[in-house]
Design the sequence.
């Protein structure tokens, strides 16, 4: 069986790719995709720690992951709704153009 | 309530006694309503005033009938209705009213004479623009006077007393545009106030000693035997008992209101008011309130006297009364204002009443009060009719010959004048004055008051004859032609004239109805009353005296009164005494150089103290506070405001700094988030390292 470290490395890599995408992309949809990647990295960690933890017979990690995916789906729906609404308002999805909330 | 703790069972008061309070209340309410009426509502105001007093007269007659019925069944009617007004500590302030022969007689007199004068006023004041206000005051006066009459509590009596004092002030100063009227109003108010202060002291003392303000309260009242015995046991200064001292204090109040020497000075000046006011307030009712007060507290004054004896208080009352009677009659001889003569005559007659109370008791004084109320009201209204008819002329030297042009006024005035003089047999004044003279003759202390009063009677007959000669006889000395007054004025005159004669019948020695009624004895018609030793001689004496006065007056004046510019007969005979009398024996001037001068000096001292001492102190305090305020202002602008402004600036700049972080770029936030997470992770790793 693959050691825990392998999962963690994959998860860390996935999180790093997602973060890089979220920070560098200008398009709001691509930023959302980056955030989804980071969430999935966290889900991977949850499963891995459960499987290698002291009580792998109880389905705790699985439950956490399922809840997290549900919340992520909801978040993606809300986020996409916002993006569509912003696009209708400003005819763009460029995040740099969205600076009206400046203090 | 007082009754619940008294030991005698409470006697249920009859219905009329229960509603006795309506008698003063209705005119007072009417006065309030009239006060709200507009000035042009003349008929409404007169109707309200007359209607309300008519209602009071009706109730008074019912009350009088009730007392009469009780008397006929040999029951001493004295029904009281008392209630507690205020309670503080263990003391109660009780008010209440009483229905007894004294109050019943007075009620009927006040409402009846008052009603006639109200009706007369409709004619007399017809051309006055403040007609409405006049009836408002008149009604208020009637209410106050009736309160005095029914009061069973000395406090309630004092309230009514002050109310009539106030209305007297308002009505004397009714024509306030005249400076003399305004001054007379002030003088009346202040002079009676001197007496009232003593009266108030007497009330407080009586309350402190007896613990009750009620006159009668089924044995617990302040002038019933229990309280009187306690008062007699105490002695105050000058050998007086507490009862006597309190009685004298109350008498001082009565002297102020009834114009007794030395507080008589306001009454002649009060004639500045409209003539109906002079008739109602300053002749018939209010000035009699003092006499009524003395009659009401008579048990207090009489307490401690042996049978047939007298007390110090009553002796003082007698001497003051007798002196006033002669003193005022002397002054009246030399006056030339028709109303002023009557005013001094009123003062003189009030002296007779006081002397009658002092020597003969309640019935003697009260009988003269009642008869005097009728004939003096008649005389004043007659004088008003004369003044009205001769175009507001008040100087008798400028009248004359009015007998022909004013026949009704002349006839009624003549009846009033004969009643006042005490013309024998057919006029009420004869019988009431004889009652007083008889009491004076039998007085145990001295005979001097008797001679004084007989001399006063002579003077009365003389000055009234002089006045009537001047006004009605001889040739007219007036500038304009006089005319008879309207019916609304002459009819009340005729009614009063009837009573000025008829009232004498209830007080003759043969049928002393009035006296028996007040004393609670049965009245019997007994012609042997005239057989009493000395009585016939007395009647002859007083008749002779009256005829001397009348004859002297007719002989000296008659129909040959001199023209206004020429000196009179007496003035030629004795110029100096005449001048003294004409100048009213200089009592006013005496007060001017003593009391008033003292007050003027005292006022100047007070003014100086006020400006220099108290004013200086106040200014110093004000200066100190201004300095303190300046210091506070400095602190405020420089310390408080400065630090506050500084704090605000700091907050604003801090906010500006923080707002720069809020640049609106989502990815900047995300970046900060990522860096923070890394930093957090680093701290965690670093802090949990083994």
Sequence:
């Amino acid at each position: 069986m693959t050691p825990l470290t392998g999962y963690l490395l994959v998860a860390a890599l996935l999180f790093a790719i997602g973060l890089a995408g979220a920070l560098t992309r200008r398009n709001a949809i691509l930023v959302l995709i980056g955030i989804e990647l980071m969430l999935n990295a966290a889900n991977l960690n949850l499963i891995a720690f459960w499987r290698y933890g002291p009580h792998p017979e109880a389905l705790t990690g699985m439950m956490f992951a399922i809840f997290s995916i549900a919340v992520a789906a909801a978040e993606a729906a809300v986020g996409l709704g916002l993006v569509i609404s912003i696009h209708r308002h400003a005819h763009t999805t460029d995040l740099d153009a969205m600076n009206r909330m400046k203090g | 309530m007082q009754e619940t703790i008294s030991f005698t069972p409470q006697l249920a008061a009859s219905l009329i006694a229960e509603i006795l309070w309506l008698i003063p209340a209705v005119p007072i309410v009417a006065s309030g309503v009239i006060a709200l009426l507009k000035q042009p509502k003349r008929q409404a105001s007169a109707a309200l005033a007359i209607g309300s007093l008519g209602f009071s007269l009706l109730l008074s007659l019912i009350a009088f009938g009730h007392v009469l019925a009780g008397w006929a069944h040999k029951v001493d009617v004295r029904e009281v209705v008392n209630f507690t007004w205020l309670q503080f500590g263990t003391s109660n302030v009780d008010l209440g009213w009483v229905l007894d022969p004294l109050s019943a007689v007075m009620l009927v007199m006040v409402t009846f004479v008052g009603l006639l004068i109200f009706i007369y006023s409709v004619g007399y004041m017809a051309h006055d623009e403040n007609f409405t206000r006049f009836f408002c005051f008149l009604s208020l006066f009637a209410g106050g006077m009736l309160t005095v009459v029914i009061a069973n509590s000395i406090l309630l009596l004092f309230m009514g007393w002050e109310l009539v004092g106030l209305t007297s002030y308002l009505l004397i100063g009714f024509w306030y545009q005249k400076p003399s009227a305004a001054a007379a109003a002030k003088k009346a108010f202040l002079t009676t106030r001197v007496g009232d202060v003593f009266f108030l002291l007497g009330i407080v003392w009586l309350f402190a000693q007896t613990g009750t303000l009620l006159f009668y309260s089924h044995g617990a009242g302040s002038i019933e035997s229990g309280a009187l015995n306690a008062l007699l046991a105490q002695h105050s200064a000058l050998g007086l008992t507490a009862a006597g001292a309190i009685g004298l204090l109350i008498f001082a109040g009565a002297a102020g209101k009834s114009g007794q020497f030395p507080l008589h000075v306001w009454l002649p000046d009060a004639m500045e008011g409209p003539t109906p006011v002079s008739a109602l307030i300053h002749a018939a009712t209010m000035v009699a309130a003092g006499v009524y007060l003395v009659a009401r507290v008579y048990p207090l004054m009489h307490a401690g006297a042996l049978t047939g004896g007298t007390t110090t208080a009553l002796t003082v009352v007698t001497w003051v009364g007798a002196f006033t009677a002669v003193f005022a009659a002397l002054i009246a001889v030399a006056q030339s204002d028709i109303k002023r003569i009557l005013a001094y005559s009123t003062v003189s007659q009030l002296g007779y009443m006081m002397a009658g109370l002092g020597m003969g008791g309640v019935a003697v004084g009260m009988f003269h009060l009642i008869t005097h109320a009728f004939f003096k009201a008649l005389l004043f209204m007659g004088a008003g009719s004369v003044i009205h008819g001769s175009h507001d002329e008040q100087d008798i030297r400028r009248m004359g010959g009015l007998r022909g042009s004013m026949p009704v006024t002349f006839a009624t005035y003549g009846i009033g004048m004969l009643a006042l003089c005490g013309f024998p047999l057919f006029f009420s004044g004869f019988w009431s004055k004889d009652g007083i003279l008889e009491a004076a003759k039998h007085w145990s202390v001295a005979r001097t008051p008797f001679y004084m009063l007989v001399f006063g009677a002579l003077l009365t007959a003389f000055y009234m004859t002089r006045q009537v000669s001047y006004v009605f006889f001889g040739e007219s000395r007036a500038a304009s032609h006089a005319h008879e007054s309207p019916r609304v004025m002459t009819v009340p005159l005729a009614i009063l004239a009837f009573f000025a004669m008829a009232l004498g019948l209830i007080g003759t020695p043969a049928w002393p109805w009035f006296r028996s009624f007040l004393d609670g004895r049965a009245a019997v018609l007994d012609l042997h009353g005239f057989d009493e030793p000395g009585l016939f001689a007395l009647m002859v004496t007083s008749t002779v005296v009256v005829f001397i006065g009348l004859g002297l007056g007719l002989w000296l004046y008659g129909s040959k009164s001199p023209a206004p510019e020429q000196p009179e007969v007496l003035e030629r005979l004795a110029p100096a005494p005449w001048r003294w009398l004409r100048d009213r024996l200089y009592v006013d001037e005496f007060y001017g150089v003593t009391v008033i001068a003292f007050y003027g000096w005292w006022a100047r001292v007070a003014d100086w103290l006020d400006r220099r001492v108290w004013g200086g102190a106040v200014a110093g305090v004000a200066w100190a506070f201004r300095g303190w305020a300046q210091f506070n202002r400095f602190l405020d602008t420089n310390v408080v405001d400065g630090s506050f402004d500084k704090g605000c600036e700091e907050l604003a700049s801090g906010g500006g700094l923080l707002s720069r972080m809020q640049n609106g770029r989502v990815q900047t936030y995300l970046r900060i988030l990522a860096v923070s997470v890394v930093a957090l992770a680093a701290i965690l790793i670093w802090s949990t390292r083994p």
In short: Chain A has a mean pLDDT of 89.
